[in-house]
Write a structure and sequence with these properties.
There is one protein chain. By secondary structure, this protein is mainly alpha-helical. It has a domain at 14-86. 56% of the residues lie in helices and 0% in strands. It is elongated and about 50 Å long. The model has no long low-confidence stretch (mean pLDDT 78).
Length: 114
């Protein structure tokens, strides 16, 4: 018997799905900042590595701001994705979308494309 992977994703809450979408961007952002912090202590960092870290930070910030959206109204919700992937058990989590009042604790249903 085959298990549909989409049925496993639909059991996740909307907030968990947003956190899953934001996680790669947050990793790029943190990785870029760590290289910047390393540049303070090490003087012989190659220029391409510093440039790559700068690009990673820009991609991380823009990715968080532009791709984490409410599945119903498509409003940007970067604070929900950031809080969910940074500290999923301890974050003060908003319970609904600020625009359409979608409950973020309900199971995620992918939007139907027409």
């Amino acid at each position: 018997m085959l298990i549909n992977p989409l049925s496993q994703q639909s059991k996740l809450a909307v907030r968990a799905q947003l956190g899953r979408r934001a996680r790669p961007f947050l990793l790029a952002l943190v990785g870029g900042w760590m290289v910047f912090a390393l540049c303070i202590f090490v003087t012989a960092i190659p220029l391409p590595l510093m440039f790559g870290a700068f690009i990673a930070v820009i991609v991380g910030v823009l990715g968080l701001l532009l791709t984490v959206r409410c599945p119903r109204c498509r409003a940007r919700l970067p604070q929900v994705g950031f809080a969910e992937c940074w500290a999923p058990a301890h974050a003060s989590k908003p319970s609904q979308c600020t625009i359409c009042r979608l409950d973020l604790r309900e199971p995620y249903t992918p939007p139907v494309r027409r």
